[in-house]
Amino acid sequence: MADKEEVELDRVQVKKAVQALQAFLKTKSTSDSLFLNETQQISLLFTLWKIPKEAQTIRIPLPHGQQSDTDELCLFTRDEPNMTSEQTQRFYKKLLEEKGVKNISEIIPYKVLKTEYKPYEAKRRLLGNFDRFISDDRIRRLLPSHLGKHFYERKKEPLSVNLQSKNLARDIQRVVQGTNMKVTNKGCCCMARVAHSGMTADEVTENIEAAFQTVVAKLRMKGPVIKLIHIKSQTSVALPIYNSDLNQLSLEAGESIQKSKEQGAKKKQTKDKNQKDTTTEEKGKKKVKENKKKAEEEDDEEEIPKLVPIETPRKKLKLEKPLKKKQLEKTPKLAAVKKGIKAQSKLAQKTESKVKRKVPKMK
Question: Which residue in 195, 211, 241, 322 could disulfide with 42, CB within 3.0 to 4.6 Å?
Fold first, then answer.
C-alpha cells in the first residue's frame, strides 16, 4: 500500500530512546524492583488507528538473535511408530547432532507430555524451567489442550519447526532468533519482543527497524495503519519513538466523508431509480385501466339491436271431440232403465213384507 510505504522511523530518535532505556535498566536497582539481568526483554508497542477486522499472527525475523547463552530450549516431538518414549528421545538427539543443532537442552515426546505433565503443578514447573519452547509442526495443533492457558498468557507458546527439513539448524536458528506478534481484533494495541538488555544499542535499533518494516508490510489493513510506536521493558515506562502526523487523520476523515457522500449519492440514485420504476409501473397500470374503461364505454355506446319477436309454432289445444249421436242416444236410456229397475226391486220388497205380516198363524 502507498500509505504504508510513506511511514518511516527516525533512526536517531530510536537510538536515543534505546540508550535512555538501557541507562534506566542499569541504574534501576532497588529492592522492590524485579531482578535485572541480561534476559530482561525489550518490546515494541504498536498502537493502530483502527481495530483490525481479523486476528493475525506475524512472524518477524530479526538480524540479531535475542537468545542469550543461558537460555534453555525445550523441543516437543511426535511419537515415532514402533518406538517407546526413550527410543524416540534418542532418535531425535541423534538427528539434532547430525544436523548440527546444539542449543536444545531437552526433548519431550508427545506421549510423555500427556502422561507425566498432565497435573497442573507439573505444567507450571515445565513453564518455569525453560525460556523457549519448540514443537514439531506435525503435532503443533495438539499442544494447546495439553499445555494450558499459562503458556499463552506468558507468551511462551511453542513455535513450530519442520524437523524433516534439510536445513534444520538454519530453520531452528531463525525461529529462535526471530519473534512473533499477535494482532487481535479486540483492541488497537499489539506488542512484540525484539531485544534484551544484554544487547548493544546498535543491535537493538537494527532489530527495531527490521520489526517495524515487517509489521508494516504484513498488516492486513488499508490506509494509514500505525498511530504510535513505543519501546519499553518489563519494568520501565513506554518511550515514544514514532508519532504519526495528523495529516493522515485529516486525509482519513476526508476519505470517510467522501465515501459517505458517495454512498449517499448512490442511495439517492437507487431511490430515484426505484421511484421512476414505480411511477412507470403506475403509469402503465393507469394506461391499462384507462384503455379498459374506454373499451367498455365504446361497447356501451354501440347501438344495441332491437329484439324482434319470432313466431314460434304453438301447440294446438286439444278440443273435446263431440259425442256421436249414437252415444248421446244411449246414455239417457241406460240411466232411465237403471232407475226403473231399482224402483221395481224396492216395490217388490215392500209387498213381500206386507204379505208376511197379514198371514194368520195356524193353530
Answer: 195
Fold for 1-66+178-248, please state it.
Ribulose 1,5 Bisphosphate Carboxylase/Oxygenase (3.30.190)
Q: State if pTM tops 0.70.
A: no
The CA distance from 256 to 245, in Å, is: 17
Q: Could you give the CA distance from residue 257 to residue 82 in angstroms, rounded to a whole number?
A: 67
Containing 355, the helix (H) or strand (E) segment is helix 325-358
E strand residue ranges, 100-217: 104-109, 132-136, 159-161, 179-183, 189-196
**DSSP classification of residue 232:** E
Q: What is the dihedral of CA 143, 146, 150, 155, to 10 degrees?
A: -10
Three-state SS for 76? Answer: strand
| Opening angle at CA 120, ends 114 and 125, nearest 5 | 90
Which CATH fold topology does 67-177 show?
Rossmann fold (3.40.50)
> What is the tens place of the pLDDT at every residue in 161-200?
888 888 888 888 888 888 888 888 888 899 988 988 888 8
In the chain, domain spans = 1-66+178-248, 67-177
Q: What is the pLDDT of residue 76?
A: 93
Q: Contact, 77 vs 92, CB < 8 A?
A: yes
Element (H, E) at 56: strand 56-60
Identity of the residue numbered 271: K
